């Protein structure tokens, strides 16, 4: 009777206000010529020459158009397979991932997942680990655990299975022991549990899909239940190489996200909640900028782009390029942007060393951790 929550990702939008104080003569002399100062930042012109990595892509087609578009924009990416009950089936997702990775090994990698259909079987963990080993033999570099655990799956007593359930421990122990990276989509944006009038970006979607609006379904686990279960999982598995998808489902608060990054040294988060990042920037540019600088080793760029069969490859390439370039401008420049319904703002203009980590080095280091 229950269905996994299907959320259409919010569209990516740019934002933020960058306030630059005039450089004093003393600072100017000590810093060297203006050209040296400029070298510490990228520009829009640098976009095509800098290596970049998108850690959150769903490649649902064997067509090569997206991979070629990524190559043209100097992007490599991670294709993520998940256990969703809609769209392209899990087995077919993985077949596509294996095929595309073999065809374009320098352009992409993929993350596998595991089905929960046999949850109530006694040998669930044993079968799951065997299945993961086969995926690693086929080239998988990481594992995705999806929101059906926590928001759909129930045990034989009808109780929701949360991500810290003891029956998952053997699987997580295996990943932890072998330093195999795990991506966790645990819960949903906090908007999902709020009344429509209190939502940040999601009122249109949940207003049209009340069946997925958790505020109307108090019988389901709460937002806090989801986050607490994820946190408890990380406490039990402190060496797990973990990336929290969608800013770790803490997109609404940089303070709450910072607390988790401080508590769990092996936790990273992907940035596939761009509208929220941009809203934080609008509300407090300095705080957001400082957050990115402080946690530059823990943040990885990702878009959660769904790549389906394209009738027009040129249109796909144009759309992909514009989305990626818009995000690049936001992070590396102080160009003006507009966040509809909120206002006009400017980009974060992060230093090169921060951009290099967020866009490439952190993803490479994280994926290289796995002994697979």
Write the layout of secondary structure elements.
Elements: H1 25-31, H2 34-38, E1 52-59, H3 65-72, E2 75-80, H4 90-103, E3 108-113, H5 124-137, E4 142-145, H6 148-151, H7 169-177, E5 182-184, H8 203-208, H9 223-236, E6 242-244, H10 245-248, H11 254-263, E7 267-270, H12 274-283, H13 285-294, E8 299-300, E9 305-307, H14 313-332, E10 336-339, E11 343-346, H15 352-368
Parallel strand pairs: 1-2, 1-9, 2-3, 3-4, 4-5, 5-6, 6-7, 7-8
Antiparallel strand pairs: 10-11
Helix pairs in contact: 3-14, 12-13
Q: In percent, how much strand structure appears in the residues?
A: 5-15%
Sheet with most strands: 9 strands, parallel
- What's the architecture, going by CATH? Alpha-Beta Barrel
Number of domains: 1
Query: How many whole angstroms does the radius of gyration measure?
Result: 21 Å
Please tell me what the overall shape is. Answer: globular
Share of residues in helices: 40-55%
Look at the structure and name the CATH superfamily.
Answer: Metal-dependent hydrolases
Number of helices: 15
User: Strand-and-helix sequence, N→C?
Assistant: HHEHEHEHEHHEHHEHHEHHEEHEEH
Mean pLDDT: 90
User: Major sheet: order of its strands?
Assistant: 8-7-6-5-4-3-2-1-9
């Amino acid at each position: 009777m229950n269905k996994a929550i299907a959320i259409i990702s919010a569209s990516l939008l740019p934002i933020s206000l960058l306030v630059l104080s005039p450089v004093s003569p003393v600072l100017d002399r000590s810093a060297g010529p203006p050209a040296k100062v400029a070298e510490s930042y990228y520009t829009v012109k640098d976009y095509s020459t800098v290596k970049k990595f998108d850690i959150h892509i769903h490649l649902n087609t064997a067509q090569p158009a997206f991979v070629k578009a990524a190559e043209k924009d100097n992007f490599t990416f991670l294709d993520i397979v998940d256990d969703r009950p809609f769209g392209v089936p899990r087995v077919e997702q993985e077949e596509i991932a294996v095929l595309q990775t073999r065809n374009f090994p320098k352009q992409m990698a993929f993350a596998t997942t595991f089905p929960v259909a046999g949850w109530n079987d006694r040998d669930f963990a044993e079968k799951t680990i065997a299945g993961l080993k086969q995926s690693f033999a086929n080239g998988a570099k990481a594992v995705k655990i999806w929101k059906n655990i926590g928001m759909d799956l129930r045990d034989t007593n009808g109780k929701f299975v949360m991500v810290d359930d003891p029956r998952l421990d053997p699987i997580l122990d295996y990943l932890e022991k072998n330093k195999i990276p795990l991506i966790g989509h645990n819960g949903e944006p906090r908007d999902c549990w709020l009344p429509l009038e209190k939502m940040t970006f999601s009122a249109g979607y949940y207003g049209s899909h009340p069946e997925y609006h958790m505020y109307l379904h108090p019988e389901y686990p709460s937002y806090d239940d989801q986050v607490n279960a994820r946190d408890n999982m990380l406490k039990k598995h402190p060496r797990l190489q973990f990336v929290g998808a969608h800013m770790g489902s803490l997109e609404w608060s940089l303070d709450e996200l910072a607390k988790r990054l401080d508590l769990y040294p092996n936790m990273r988060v992907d940035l596939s909640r761009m509208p929220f990042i941009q809203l934080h920037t609008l509300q407090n540019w300095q705080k957001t900028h400082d957050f990115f600088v402080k946690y530059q080793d823990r943040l990885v760029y990702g878009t959660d782009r769904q790549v389906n069969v394209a009738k027009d490859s040129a249109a796909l390439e144009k759309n992909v390029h514009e989305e990626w370039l818009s995000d690049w401008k936001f992070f590396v420049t102080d160009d003006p942007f507009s966040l509809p319904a909120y206002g006009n703002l400017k980009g974060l203009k992060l230093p090169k060393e921060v951009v290099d980590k967020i866009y490439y080095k952190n993803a490479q280091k994280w994926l290289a951790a796995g002994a697979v």
